[in-house]
UniProtKB/TrEMBL annotation:
Pfam families: PrcB_C (PF14343). One of its GO terms (biological process) is proteolysis. Residues 1-21 form the signal peptide. GO terms for molecular function: peptidase activity. Residues 75-131 form the PrcB C-terminal domain. Keywords: Hydrolase, Protease, Signal. This is Protease complex subunit PrcB family protein. The lineage of its organism: Bacteria, Bacillati, Bacillota, Clostridia, Lachnospirales.
């Protein structure tokens, strides 16, 4: 009988402990992704990147991919959208910025305009962004 009396109190304590544990140690995602500063960058062509990076891009270009590559001073952020039917595709950079724990790049694949001749050959849009080397992971958005 004494067990039955203590069971509701024990259950209530367990629920409170679980709720409390759920709130501790949590940090808002917006806190982690708060922009500290915009980063300067240059969009470069494949002929302007280190040879090793150019080879990696050539190997990966047929399927969508995202990668970063760094040398002594620079970081290259590369986004490939894989095979696209016809031409006229490009990748736009909307933002490149620094947060407390990452470098964030926000891009968008732009299709050909309605009046643009696209042809029938496959195209492989690739964006290469060159920026200063920062030792933080890159978040692709």
């Amino acid at each position: 009988m004494p067990l039955k009396k203590g069971l509701p109190a024990l259950c209530a304590a367990a629920v409170i402990a679980v709720v409390f544990a759920g709130f501790t140690g949590c940090r808002s995602d917006s806190e982690d992704s708060k922009k500290i500063q915009n980063l300067d960058f240059t969009v470069v062509g494949e002929e302007e990147v280190p040879g090793e990076l150019a080879q990696i891009i050539a190997q990966k270009r047929e399927k969508p991919f995202k990668l970063t590559y760094a040398d002594a001073n620079d970081m290259y952020i590369v986004i490939g959208e894989g095979a696209q039917q016809g031409g006229g595709y490009s990748i736009a950079v909307h933002e490149l910025y620094l947060t407390d724990n990452s470098v964030v790049i926000r891009t968008e694949l732009m299709g050909p305009g309605s009046s643009e001749a696209t042809g029938t050959d496959m195209s492989y849009p690739v964006l290469i962004v060159k920026t200063q080397y920062i030792e933080k992971p890159v978040a692709f958005q």
